Amino acid sequence: MAFLERLVIDLLLRFWSVEQLNAALSDPRTVALIVGGLVAVATALPGVILLLRKSALTADAISHSVLFGIVVAFLVMLALGADPDLSSPWLIVGAAAAGVITVVLTEAIQRSGLVKADAALGLVFPFLFAAAVIMVTRYIPNVHLDSDAVMVGEIGAAWANTNSYCLDHCDEVIITPEHPKAEVGRRCLNCTPGGITPRDPRAQFEALCANCGTYSAAEAWRLRLIDAPPALIFFPRAIITVGLAALINVLFVILLYKELKLSTFDPALARSFGFRPGLISLALMALVSLTAVAAFDAVGAVLVVAFFIIPAGTAYLLTDRLWRM
To answer: What sign results for the dihedral spanned by CA atoms 283, 286, 288, 291?
Structure first.
C-alpha cells in the first residue's frame, strides 16, 4: 500500500504543488467525493453481474458475513501472538474467505432440497453475522461497534485517516551535547536534603542533556530543533484502499468478460465450452467480499448494498446491452 500511495503522490505532484495537494486532501468534501466515486466504480461492476444472475441479495449477505471473516482472522492473529493490526491484509483475506463460505453454505443448503435459494441465503448470513457479534463481545474486549458506522460508514471522516510522506528535508535529526540546539545542564549525584548542596565543594556532578536523542524530521520541526520544515504529504488511506479494489474489479471484468457473459446467461453452454462457471462464481463472490471490506469504513455494511445494486438496476432500465451496463 505504501508503494502505491507514494506512486500516486509522485504522479499528482506533476500537476499540483505540495501545498495545493495537501489543501485538497485535507478537505472533507473533496476526499468524500473522491472516495465515493471510487466506491461507486468498485461496486457497480460486480453489481451488474450479480443483478443479471438474480443474486442481488448476495451482496447484502456478503456485506454482513464479511464481519465473521474479519473477527476470525483477528482472533487467529491474537492466538499466534501477532500484532492485531486492523489494517492487516490478513483481515481482508479472512473477509474474502467468509464471503466464499457464505456462497458455499448457501448452495449446499439449497442442494439439500429442504429450502429454496432465498431462504438458504437468509439462514446463512444472519448466522455468520450473529456469530461474529458474539465473538466480538466475548473474546475481543474494548471494541466499540458504532451502529451508524456499521450501517452507513464514515465517509465524511475519510480525510482524517492518513499516512504521511516526507518529500524534502526528511533526514533524521540527532541531538548530541555538542549540538547548538542541545539543552545541556548538570545533575548533582550526591546532593541530599539538609546535607550536601549543589554549592558544596564536595558535590559531584554529571553532565545532563535534556533533549539529546534521535528525532524524525516532523518531530524535530515541532520541537523547533531545525530551521526549515519538512515537506509532508498527508494522503488518506481510503483512496488507495478503495481505488485498488476498483482497479482489481475493472481488470477482472475486462480479462474475463467473455467468461462472465457466457456463464451468466447460459451456464450449461459455458460448461460445454470448457469454462468453469462454478469457479468463476466463486471468484466473483471473493471480489464482492474484498470490495465490501474495502468500502466498509467509507459506506458501511448496509449502504454498500445500495452501491452494488442501484447503479446496476438503473443501467438495466436504460439499456439491454451488457457492455453498456
So the answer is: negative
